[in-house]
Amino acid sequence: MRQNAKPASQKLVKPNCTITLRHSKILDQMASNYYVSRSEALRACITDHERTLDGDSEDSIKLLHKKVDSQSEKLHELSGIIESLLSVIVGPQLPLKHSTQLETGSDGSLPRIPLTESAPKPESGANEKTAIDNDTYDSIKHLKKATLSEISDHCGRIESEVRDSVGRLDSRFLVTSIVNDGITEYQLRAGTSNGEDMSGEA
Predict the structure, then answer these.
(1) Is the pTM of this model over 0.90?
(2) Structural domain of residue 149, as residue ranges?
(3) How far is CA 143 from its chain centroid?
């Protein structure tokens, strides 16, 4: 009895089949570029197609979708960085729908800015950061859990401003971040959704 006999699945046979001249040329190219022979190239093609028929390709497609979503999020963040750089170079350009006038309270402090489309926003300085933090905090509270781009769309602030604001809120232990499938989302820390004073510094 032969001791080195190959398993049935690994025995080599010559298939009785025909292929077109075009497929024969493709097989030659594959063998020349990626494999050691036409036979190895043909076996690899059959194995790969078998996985496709078995549904393995669906998992690959899902993984590809996740990678595309992750890259899309990074591109969105990069867009926010570019917008921030442009605002430094050419100066901030406030949307026309927002008024630049801001009324202060009787004690001179900045009032809490309601989250509305017509909410007035100051031009710069500490008051501007307070207003951005108000908008960011309210958006996260409303959305429950959201990415930087989702928060930016909701509160009408550019993404770079939201990113800086989230950092300030995180340093005050008001928000926290979670990562799922490479995508970072933000939510309020437990116990901070009620009664937190956002109009002053921590």
Answers:
(1) no
(2) 125-194
(3) 17
